[in-house]
DNA sequence: GTTGACTCTCACATTAGTGTTAGGGTTTAG
DNA sequence: CTAAACCCTAACACTAATGTGAGAGTCAAC
């Protein structure tokens, strides 16, 4: 059991409790290759302590609008993979992330503008829905 | 055929061409109850000319982030259903729509802020979680 | 040595809009 | 009459993350 559970590692349930992420999601992250783990000879997953921050980071990236396929391509340092040091790729990855967010904001601003336009048209037109052909 | 195709109506393919919305989507809108049509005795759907603006409006509402279930509950005037006049409900519906968009923008601004914060911190956070058990 | 708490894999459900295909009627033009 | 071009219903696929449950193995404590 000592060689089955490498020292300094935690089980999936433990990781789930500590990170606040469901066991199901963690398994999914691991299956999708955005999270690594050791496997005991009983098949159990054993995660390093760093995985706690990793899964949180993954959920943060998801909340940014990325899917797991995107995240998998990110530099390891950005995913906080253990052993990864700060790397140059992080900056450009974060910059494109920032760009993506800005783009989403722009899209929403455009929708807002269109809505306001529609609203002002409704007030002036009020009943000109008899056109079109 | 003249009584099968009521005058002033168009077929689904025609509506698709004129509105730029796929036949499949139009059928789906009709099935979901956000779009009305007549049925010929051959089972064909016949839409009024106003449906052209209606399906465009539906897609606009979808682009605002609403689903068809939401849209179905909207006042008819907001969905531009034929015969509907301007009504008071439209304004409040549009206002909550506006509020929803503003909320989404706020969320994104927060994410952007968090990202910028992360970017400025990212050197120091790799080894801040050494608490075991 | 048995029970309870874990873990594993596999697989289907959900949400929503849209694409696609199959199999079969209908209309229209030549 | 026939062929092209429409239309119909029904049903499954896709995307993506997560929930849920079955059936089975494992571990720890009493």
Explained architecture:
By secondary structure, chain A is mostly helical. The first copy, chain A, is 56% helix and 6% strand. Chain A contains five helices and three strands, in the order βααββααα. In chain A, a hairpin with a 5-residue loop joins strand 2 and strand 3. In chain A, helix 1 (12-19) crosses helix 3 (51-63). The longest helix of chain A is centred in the C-terminal third of the chain and has 38 residues, at 88-125. Chain A is elongated, with a radius of gyration of 23 Å. In chain A, 21% of the residues are buried. Chain A binds a DNA duplex (30 and 30 nucleotides) through helix 2.
Summarize the structure.
The structure is a homodimer of 133-residue chains. With 133 residues, chain A is mainly alpha-helical.
């Amino acid at each position: 059991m000592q060689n089955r559970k490498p020292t300094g590692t935690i089980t999936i349930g433990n990781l789930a409790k500590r990170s606040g992420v469901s066991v199901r999601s963690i398994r999914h992250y691991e299956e999708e290759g955005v999270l690594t783990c050791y496997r005991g000879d009983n098949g159990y997953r054993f995660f390093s302590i760093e995985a706690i921050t990793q899964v949180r980071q993954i959920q943060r990236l998801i909340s940014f609008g990325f899917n797991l396929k995107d995240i998998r391509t990110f530099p390891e340092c950005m995913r906080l993979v253990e052993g990864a040091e700060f790397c140059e790729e992080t900056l450009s990855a974060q910059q494109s992330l920032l760009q993506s967010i800005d783009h989403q904001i722009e899209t929403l601003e455009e929708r807002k503008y269109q809505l306001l336009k529609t609203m002002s048209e409704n007030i002036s037109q009020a009943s000109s829905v008899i056109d079109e052909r």
